[in-house]
Amino acid sequence: MAGTTLNISRLRRLLPAFWIFLTLLLSLAGPSSASSGEFRFYESTGTRTSATPGTLPGESPTRVRIDLGGSWAYSIEGGPSGTVNVPSAFDFIGKVAYQRAFVVPANVVSGYRFQIMALGISQNAEITVNNDFITNHSGGYSSIVQSVPANSIQPFQDNVIRIVVSNQLDYRRTLPLRPLPWGERNYGGIYRDIYLLGTPQVFIRNAILQTNYDENATAAHLHVRVILDRGELKSEGSGQLGFSVEAYDKISGISVGRSPLRMFGAAESEGAVDFVVDHPKLWSPDSPDLYLLRCILSRVAGKEVTTVDEYDITAGIRDIKTTKGRILLNGKELTLQGVIWNEDHPAFGNALTYEQMEKDIAQIKMLGANLVRFIHHPPHPFMIDLCDRYGLLVLEEIPLVQVPPEFLEDEQFLGQAESMLGEILSRDQNHPAILAWGLGDGLDVSKEATRRAIERLAKQARALDTRPLYLASRCISGDVCTKMMDIAALTATAQDMRDFKAELEAWRSSHEGQPRIVVCFGTQVQQQNRTGYSNPYSQEGQARFYLQGFEVARTLGYSGGVLCSYNDWTGARPSLTVHSDDPWLYSTGLVSGDREKRLAFDAARAVFHGEKFSALPIGTYSSKAPIIFVLVGFAALVGIAYLFNASRRFRESLNRSIFSSYNFFSDVRDQHMVSLWHTILIGIGTSSGVALVLSSIMYHYRDSWFVDNLLTFILVSDTLKGSVVRVIWHPLACIGFIAGAVFVGLIVLGIVIYLVKVFFRQQIYLFHAITVAFWSASPFLTFIPIGMIVYRLMESQVYILPALIIVLVVHIWVVLRMLKGLSIVFDVYPLKMYASGIVAFLLVGVALYLYYDAFLSAPEYIRFMYHVVTHSL
Length: 873
Hints:
The protein is of the alpha+beta class and 873 residues long.
């Protein structure tokens, strides 16, 4: 008994050392740059001036705009308060209440109706003015246009606007859903312009333009439909309302066409006019000629005509068709050369300044691109204005991204998608730059639930606008969705050129007769890596991939491709598949987040301009398996072999624990001595074996999209996953991390065994409980030689499943040994212990399932991801 007390005392003295060891291993992962717990705001320092091209939505000479930007007071729920300039973005998950005062002159209050115009509040906003509720709005990137009730705004005194903003997203109900790895960062806040728009009492709420141009004719026919807002006035005054439209050349200001005056009936709030522009200048990327359409609402009383309101449209006359597998712009076949632009900047978050937005568009145009894809959400309206002016076609889409099919059957969720699609089309459909509307990305297009949802959204979009539709998709067998679209849009996932070509060939064979675009392809790059293109993560490797990718798309008859991406961006979640040192940084850009050009920028420019690019050095990169697995395994084997031969007691204990486990655990029950030192050594050996195998398997799957997403659900915490990702990419650190975690886990398991003694008659001491946990795991020693070769074995698809089965079998063996040991130590009938153990595992499994299902919807996501992976090319 005295010996037992001594061993327990020694064990307690060693426990702090174990925790220190684990803490040191965790520190190898480094701090989490994206989840540091800071309440960080990114302020948009740029200001809009009279020299800034374009106007904000709704502005015109008959209206007044009261800017609500500037300093706002904020209060973070559960955090600090202060002031911040708006527009700005916050980089944390939470709820923030914003408030500011503003004054409106008496003549403006009495003469106008008011609307709150917010171009971007992420993600959910509740707005009140002087404590009067105005609106709730969901959707961080669509604009808010909401009338303010009469008498809510008071003249010549402080009016208070309060906006409560939450960027908390859900895995099942919000749109967008909570992003998975490689999703856009979930910034919050009032990150775009916000202003109060004063309109006449009767005003034009919207004007919708349709142009009809025949390349064989000499004139363009313009159709403008106007929607009035008459409010709740009982009388609109004398006379009758009518409207007309006049077109002006955007540069010269010369009138080029005018409609007749179209009169409204007393209760009528919609009307349309048609007129002709002779010899029009056509809009195209090579010649982005624009017109200004002034929609004038007039009151006609006898011979007196008074202007009531003006609604301006910046228009371009062009014709887009999709036919016989081609996209035609103004009758000519269009070859798309595009980039994805991510609304993100390390200095501004997603609250980019006007100056930065124009710099980006000017740089993209200089690159030679003719298209920009605004991925997964609509951009700031100013970006669309810039694309109109610079001559860049636009792909714009709703954030229906990686949604499991079950969610698309939810009427409320699908209703959100329809509402957001309507908001986006209503805001941007007059822009000539819009080439096509996107209905989603990364969906399981082989499911009927997905098909029904996309069919419904497509019907809505086609009722509102005539532009082509696309659904960005991976190449999935059994696709029942993308053939309904006007453009077959492929999201290419391959990082190897041979696989990339196979993807494009498979997509071409299944989409004959449709125009085909690769709407996303690219590869990652390490900023300082200039080791030659044999290293796929070097700048040379990225440049070569883009050079070859466009050539493959051209030779296979595609209508073009879109590079992923123009700029690096910070993601919403840490990703295992990221090859930068920061798991949150997605470095796929032609330029870095700070807009520093890479070699791929020059390569893309050469492709887009039809020029030859200088030869790239190949380098000497090798992707051999890390030798560290062999070295660590060899060292562990030598240590175990030496101990086995040098210590008779250790040899006997190990042999008896494996081959005569009943006698071994009986000795533990009878409190016969087992060396503390040997117990610690067996714990280190088994932990090392588990660490070797698991680190090898994780290193093998470090580029797996499925495993990356699976880890996101298993680990739950982004901070924890970020740390785990860092160590997975460094095998030695990963081995140490897992070994330390397993060792501590065995100690915790021993403590649990000690605590459950209250359910049994047999007395057991803490040291003996830990002895059962450590020596039950002795079969894990077989993992040491397995861990030395498993990474190499798994490089062949043939051996992956057998290797994983062996790992599973050894784990089951260890569990059964532990249950047997417990039955002996607690003197319980073995079948009863096995049954109790199985029940306990089932209960834990059911509890975990219920938790992951209720809070994360993990089962639906895992089924969705597994189906996508197994049915993709």
